[in-house]
Write the structure tokens for this entry.
Amino acid sequence: MTTANLLEFDLEGLAAFCEKLGEKRFRATQLFRWIHQRGASDFAQMTDLAKSLREKLATTARVEALTVLTQHESKDGTIKWLFDVGDGNAVEAVFIPEDDRGTLCVSSQAGCAVGCRFCSTGHQGFSRNLSTGEIVAQLWFAEHFLRKHLKRDERVISNVVMMGMGEPLQNYSALVPALRTMLDDNAYGLSRRRVTVSTSGVVPMIDRLGVDCAVAMAVSLHAPNDALRDDLVPLNRKYPIAELIEACKRYLAHAPRDFITFEYCMLDGVNDQPEHARQLVELVRTHGISCKFNLIPFNPFPASGLLRSPQPRVLAFARTLSEAGLVTTVRKTRGDDIDAACGQLAGDVKDRTRAAERMAQRRAVSERPVVLHPVRKTTPQEH
């Protein structure tokens, strides 16, 4: 008999499941707390549930986590898990500890179909979307593992970023119930400001998320103009920068923060020149969007044909943005020694789509000098 994995349900879904069993809504809330707040997977342990309900659950439901294939801990405390999701596919999640927070980076797909040049996940191709339960299972496992590992009773993970493998907004139907579980006070109780969805720019889904479950938004920008972004982020050919930024402005009407974070991976000689920084300033001013920039040192991998920008150039780039009144940070690299840093999440997913070969061909065509068009000088703007 097929049983339901209760990690697949947000609270509304679990309430509907319990109703089918002839149970009232408050039983779903109790069950939700046992699963997510206490990390219980054995219904017999859920002592405040009626015995009759526990017997029903034993034959109709399960709480099934993902199988951990490997676990690696960095010297800086970062932990990376590789989870088996079946059929030769695997996904990764990364815990990043800091003094004032504990952040979990969560995957939404096995592989990725977007194919950004600088992302190792994109080079392995796309296998499939994860289910809601597979997304939530990464948080469920990590939170309760870390409480035991760190010998803590209170919550360890304070922030979740959907920045792992995959494009979250291309798996929208599974993403939204997972986000609702993360936010629910009967589960993990995370603030909307502390849950971030990172997207390469799926414009229609940005608009939908603003209405359905607005959380913090990070956009993988990586270029100041369409010609360059078309090459680095192929999705730009469908949703160019102007459309993307206008969608971000619409999203801000619903968002828990008053700014959008633009992620910008610093690639040596590709998008890190002074002209690029000035074009970014002009772009933001033209569209009048409230934003901050997060400059990301590139984490090289052989198939990319790309190199990390030298640190002095990264700092000079940041200074240009800051002096123009744009809030700018440079991301501190974490987990480099276990390949857990941004853009390095590749796992053991097989390249069934010959993505690496196709991207190598695209790179050979695109490795021509990019003509930079001069931009007019502007005066600093308050942000």
Notes: The two ends are 59 Å apart (CA to CA). The longest helix spans residues 132-149.
